[in-house]
Design goal:
The chain contains 8 helices and no strands. Helix 6 crosses helix 8. The mean pLDDT is 78. Helices cover 78% and strands 0% of the residues.
């Protein structure tokens, strides 16, 4: 069916849309609890699929669609949650809030500095530049499995190095009055 779509077969696209739309919508809704956002996420995915149909190289359509929805949900939270927080009139953050963010950023940078250079580079590309494993592998001219290994090592190490700081931060905010 993917090859038919790349040849602009509207019926093949409609069958894929009908087969996956509800399941993808349900998945997005579970993650967002927002009907409008879930509809928009799935609609944008299918629009993107149609627009890029001739250049996409998809090995497993179902996996591609669900990973795409997951990434769009993440983008939804990155984009919409700060705006929602800004619109809450009586939300008062503790005066220390900017300091905590600066300290968290410094702690992350310090923890990253303890990683091997290649592992740091891969983590930064994946987390801060939103690069896929494939894009990183191509850029660094290494197997995707190697990229996955470095990323896994980075997340394990950072979780360990930052656990104390994050626990303290959670405790401080849980005892503050907002």
């Amino acid at each position: 069916m993917l090859s038919l779509i790349s040849e602009q077969d509207n019926d093949a696209f409609a069958r894929i849309f009908q087969k996956y739309w509800q399941e993808l919508y349900d998945f997005a809704f579970i993650k967002t609890q927002d009907t409008d956002a879930s509809e928009e996420i799935v609609q944008e995915l299918f629009v993107n699929l149609w627009e890029k149909r001739q250049t996409l190289r998809i090995a497993n359509l179902r996996s591609y669609l669900f990973v795409s929805v997951k990434n769009r949900v993440i983008d939804f939270y990155r984009r919409d949650i700060p705006a929602q927080l800004d619109s809450i009139p009586d939300l008062t953050l503790p005066a220390e809030y900017p300091i905590f963010l600066e300290e968290l950023e410094a702690a992350i940078e310090e923890a990253l500095a303890q990683l091997p250079e290649k592992t740091q580079q891969i983590f930064r590309l994946k987390k801060f530049e939103d690069k896929t494993t494939r894009e990183i592998a191509e850029r660094l001219d290494m197997p995707e499995r190697t990229v996955e290994y470095h990323y896994t090592q980075a997340t394990r190490t950072l979780k360990s190095l930052l656990s104390g700081f994050l626990s303290l931060l959670v405790w401080l905010f849980s005892t503050s009055t907002f």
